[in-house]
Each structure stands twice: as structure tokens, then as C-alpha cells.
UniProtKB/TrEMBL annotation:
Keyword field contains Methyltransferase: yes
UniProt GO BP: methylation
Residues annotated as domain Methyltransferase type: 74-177
GO terms for MF: methyltransferase activity
InterPro entries: Methyltransf_12, SAM-dependent_MTases_sf
Keywords: Methyltransferase, Transferase
Protein name (Swiss-Prot/TrEMBL): Methyltransferase type 12
One Pfam family of this chain: Methyltransf_12
Domain of life: Bacteria
Length: 294
């Protein structure tokens, strides 16, 4: 982020959600260009995120593939990752709270000639929204073999227990949940410092972190709805929320490469960006969690 303020605010979920939605709605046209999907000549390839995540998920999938499986992508944004899963044979449903993002995702799937379903809802209400959509015939199913979320997602949520309950509510018995996201230890760092320096909260206390930034992580352009709210969640909170929802954790990994340039000090490497040596071995930048519904 280009400009940050080290301060917190006690805001309601509704207030934080409204500010974040206004911001994400404005990001859509900027991200369409930044992601390279603004026109019909964009390359028809798997997103880098999905390529990496599929390799991590493969040992836990039947035949090592999502081909033929019902997959729900939570917080899908403009659908680049969702559509990538459709390209490799999954029957996909994307969930997001941004109407503009879902409209962009639907256009992308149509241009690619791929079938996908889209549901507009807060991820914290995903289970009920999917059941309602399925009852209307808007989506083919409200329960899934795979529930997936990845990169820059759960910091926008204030209640991970409620989040994990949605996942449990839409996973079939034996179904797989997979998340890869920015590591909370990385989020506690001052991204503009010349060394690894902790500045922000690692442990949450219910308060949101307040940010004011006219830029975004992909593409050129500025946003007028600059204020956003994020909630810190330590790794233990993520794991315990998933366990508490009744899922069985099968694997937890931490990584040194993140798909976007969190800090100007990060170097471009295969798969994204990483700290320069020797800091690379000192601080994780991502985590991934694989869990299964018994």
C-alpha cells in the first residue's frame, strides 16, 4: 500500500463492509487491465495463483485433479482464478460481495466459452445465499466437493468463526477446503521499512485497521473511495476457526513467495515476489491450509 496510517478503529461490520465494497467496486476496471483481461485478446491461460494452488491441492484430490468436481470459490473477485478452475474441468461457482466484480467475472467466462455460476453475497452469509440461489435454479448446487479461497481474502473479514461455519455448511462429506493467503506475520510488518520491522498488530482485538490509499495492487489508476478496513487474524485463529467448524486439518504450510509485491524491497522471483536474502528465510509471506469435512 502506498500510504498507510498506524491506527485502529472500532467499526461495525456493516460500516466496514460498506467502505470496503465501495473501494472494491472501483478497483474492478483497474484490475481488468492489471490482470490482462480487459479485452478479448487476453491470453487464455491458467492464472499463476491457480497453477501454484493446484499443485498444492493435488495430493488431496481424487486423481490429483478438480476435473469433474463441484468447486466453490469464495471471495472470487473478477473471476480469473475461478475461470482457471473451469478450464481444468471443475464445475465452478464464484461468490463475491461486489456486483461489478461478478459482472466482470461473468464476461470473462463468457468470452472463454466456459460455464460458471456466480452468487452475490457476503462470504459470511455464503451458505444461506447458495441454498437460496440453488432453490431458484440460479446455481446447480449449494454443496461442493471443493471450497477454495486464496490470496488477500480473510483480512477483509471480522469473524473467522462465522467464516469457517460457511465453509462447513457448503462442503460435502469428504470434501476438501483449501486456502492460501498472505501470512499474518507479513501483514504485521512495515512494508516501506528498510528492514523487517514489525509495526502493526499480529493478534487481533476486534478492532479494524484503517487504511487510506488511492492506489491498488494491480494496474494503474486511482480510487476515490480510499478508506478501507481490515482485521488482523493470527495463524492460530485461522486454524482454530477451521477446526471449530468441524473440519479436519490435513496440512499446514508456510511459504516465502507471495503473488503480489507487498513491499518495494521484494524481488521478482518464480511465482511472484520474495524478500531479498537473507531476509527470505527470516519471515514467511504466505500460509496454506488444507482441511477436509469428515
Amino acid at each position: 500500500m502506498a500510504e498507510t496510517h498506524d491506527r485502529t478503529a472500532r467499526v461495525t461490520w456493516e460500516e466496514g463492509r460498506a467502505a470496503n465494497l465501495a473501494n472494491w467496486e472501483e478497483r474492478v476496471p483497474i484490475h481488468e487491465v492489471g490482470y490482462g483481461i480487459a479485452d478479448d485478446v487476453a491470453p487464455d491461460t491458467l492464472s499463476r495463483v491457480v497453477r501454484d494452488d493446484l499443485m498444492a491441492m493435488a495430493p488431496f484430490l481424487p486423481g490429483g485433479s478438480v476435473d469433474g468436481l463441484d468447486l466453490c470459490h469464495l471471495q472470487c473477485h473478477i473471476g480469473t482464478d475461478t475461470v482457471s478452475f473451469a478450464r481444468v474441468g471443475a464445475r465452478v461457482t464464484g461468490v463475491d460481495f461486489s456486483p461489478a466484480a461478478l459482472a466482470s467475472a461473468a464476461r470473462l467466462a463468457e468470452r472463454r466459452g466456459l460455464t460458471a455460476s456466480w452468487v452475490e453475497t457476503d462470504v459470511l452469509d455464503a451458505a444461506a445465499a447458495l441454498r437460496s440461489a440453488a432453490s431458484r435454479g440460479d446455481v446447480p448446487t449449494a454443496d461442493f466437493d471443493v471450497v477454495y479461497t486464496s490470496i488477500g481474502a480473510i483480512c477483509w473479514l471480522d469473524d473467522l468463526d462465522r467464516w469457517a461455519a460457511q465453509i462447513a455448511g457448503i462442503l460435502r462429506p469428504g470434501g476438501l477446503f483449501y486456502i492460501r493467503d498472505g501470512h499474518p506475520a507479513m501483514y504485521a510488518l512495515d512494508e516501506n521499512a528498510p528492514e523487517l520491522r514489525t509495526t502493526y498488530r499480529y493478534f487481533g482485538d476486534g478492532a479494524a485497521q484503517v487504511w487510506d490509499d488511492a492506489g491498488t495492487y494491480a494496474g494503474e489508476g486511482t480510487i476515490t473511495s480510499t478508506r478501507t478496513y481490515e482485521w488482523p487474524h493470527p495463524l492460530s485463529e485461522v486454524v482454530n476457526a477451521v477446526i471449530g467448524a468441524g473440519l479436519r486439518v490435513e496440512r499446514l504450510d508456510e511459504g516465502t513467495v507471495v503473488p503480489w509485491q507487498f513491499s518495494p524491497r521484494m524481488e521478482s522471483v518464480d511465482g511472484g515476489f520474495a524478500w531479498p536474502e537473507p531476509d527470505r528465510a527470516r519471515m514467511p509471506v504466505t500460509f496454506s491450509l488444507t482441511a477436509r469435512m469428515p
